[in-house]
Amino acid sequence: MSKIEIKPFEEQIRIAGIAGELERAEEKAFKKGFEKMYEVGRAETEEKFILKLLETQSPEEISQNFEVPLERVLEIAKGNC
């Protein structure tokens, strides 16, 4: 191979490497965004669930029955979440 043929090939390999790195970075960012969205949704659902339970159960009962920290139940009960 001549130098002219080798240089474009090396350039193609470098570009492919950069493209792979960009793709992995995009996948990682998407995964982090999805996890954050899940956590926000989970917290909102937990709050609604606990508020409904508070209509019939004490904070201590909810904490014990559903393995939620008592501090979290009391925080939701006071509306400071």
Overview of this protein structure:
The chain is an all-alpha fold and 81 residues long. The chain is built from three helices and no strands.
State which percent range the strand residues make up.
Answer: under 5%
Provide the low-confidence segments as ranges: none
Globally, the shape reads rod-shaped
Oligomer: single chain
Task: State the helical fraction.
Answer: over 70%
Mean pLDDT: 86
Q: Count the strands?
A: 0
- Biggest β-sheet strands, sense, barrel: none
Task: Determine Rg (CA atoms, Å).
Answer: 26 Å
Q: Report, as a whole number of angstroms, the end-to-end distance.
A: 68 Å
What's the helix count? 3
Could you state the order of secondary-structure elements as H and E? HHH
The secondary-structure class comes to: mainly alpha
Write the layout of secondary structure elements.
Blueprint lengths: L2 H51 L5 H8 L3 H9 L3
Which descriptors apply to this entry?
84% helix; 81 residues
In short:
This protein has 81 residues and is an all-alpha fold. The chain is built from three helices and no strands.
